[in-house]
Amino acid sequence: MTAPQTAIAGLEEIYDTLALAIDAAPEDKRELMLTKVALLLALEIRNPQRVIDLIHQAVGSAHQAA
């Protein structure tokens, strides 16, 4: 498997894991769970501006898909 294929496979596994976690969370707690995931990832990245930029990127992608 090449590097891009490995990266895509990793993203697919993350997507699947996140989708299952969202489905498993009580409906009224899903936003809280996603917020906690974002904050935990932000702690790992240790670059607040990068996290903010990625949040804006995700919001933009969501608006384009709507």
List keywords for this structure.
66 residues; mainly alpha; 85% helix
Order of helices and strands: HHH
- The SS-based structural class is mainly alpha
Strand content: under 5%
How much is the average pLDDT? 93
Low-confidence stretches at least 5 residues in length (pLDDT < 50)?
A: none
Describe the structure.
The structure is a single chain. The chain has about 70 residues and is mainly alpha-helical. It has one domain (about 5-65). It contains 3 helices and no strands. It has helices spanning about 5-25, 30-45, 50-65. The longest helix has 22 residues, at about 5-25. The N and C termini lie far apart (about 35 Å).
Write the layout of secondary structure elements.
Layout: H1 3-24, H2 30-45, H3 48-65
